[in-house]
Amino acid sequence: MPELPEVESARSVIERAALGRLIVEVDDSDAYVCRPHRPGEIRSALAGRRLLSAHRRGKSLWCETTGDDAPVLGIHLGMSGKIVIAGVDGSELDGGDYWEGRRVPGDYRWSRFSLTFDDGGRLMLVDPRRLGRIVLDPAIDRLGPDAATITAAAFRAAVATGTVPVKARLLDQHAIAGIGNLLADEILWRARVNPARALDELTAPEVERILRATRKALAAALEHGGVHTLTVIPFRRPGARCPRDHAPMSRGKVGGRTTWWCSAEQPVPTTK
């Protein structure tokens, strides 16, 4: 699913091209994507307002709006969601999940929610798998600190205590918000730490390596266009070899998620 870098690209698109534009129509007819709101409820809340600002924490995206008792528009991209801002002249800006070219310009058959502005342009949640979510006034405070801005002290506190596998803690959005399955594998591969290592078994140098790897992986993904551009991601497949030392890549389940690691540089922890 889209992780922090993909959601940041969607937030950036909204900030660049949608703020300040008058909303004259809202399509909230998809009752599944807009649950628990009834069709027309989000439309009534947003019509006649403008998007004031676009924010992100971890994988969560939300927009503040103008006016009295202004509602907050929460946008969850799900596993395949993309924000597309279309102009009346046929121009498009998009940000979100990487689709490997599966969407062509002007193909909005998978639009699940849209705002229409007074100039005829539209902001759409385009989502083939229909796993995105639109909600008013989302509960942002439940999330942990953002992975891209978390302090070193807060990161160390989050990953240095407990008995769960380190990958499970990285995926815990209440501890650190924004790291998903692929990004966690990249971080731990860069840090040369096995994903199944228990937190209370990590050494101080290992925690520091994980912190540095998190910052570098996020910076690279943000710069180059998403988690799919990171180094080890293309090698998460049967028969692949580690791009660093060419040892076979190993596969297993950690925290209920499919996980890949280097068989040589990320040895499986020994049982006590």
Structure write-up:
This protein folds into two domains: 4-141, N-terminal domain of MutM-like DNA repair proteins (Alpha-Beta Barrel); 144-262, Helicase, Ruva Protein, domain 3, CATH 1.10.8.50. The radius of gyration is 20 Å and the shape is elongated. The strands form three sheets. The chain has a five-stranded antiparallel beta sheet with strand order 1-7-8-5-6. Strands 2-3-4-9 form a four-stranded antiparallel beta sheet, covered by helices on one side. α5 packs across α6. With 272 residues, the protein is an alpha+beta fold. It has six helices and eleven strands. The model has no long low-confidence stretch (mean pLDDT 93). The two termini are 35 Å apart.
Low-confidence stretches: none
Number of helices: 6
Helix content: 10-25%
> Rough shape?
elongated
- What's the CATH superfamily of the largest domain, by name? MutM-like, N-terminal
Spatial strand order of the main sheet? 1-7-8-5-6
According to CATH, the fold-level topology of the largest domain is N-terminal domain of MutM-like DNA repair proteins
The percentage of residues in β strands lies in 15-25%
H/E element sequence? HEHEEEEEEEEHHHHEE
Gyration radius from CA atoms, angstroms? 20 Å
Mean of pLDDT: 93
Structural class: alpha+beta
The structural domain count equals: 2
CATH architecture heading of the largest domain: Alpha-Beta Barrel
Distance between the termini: 35 Å
Record field, number of beta strands:
11
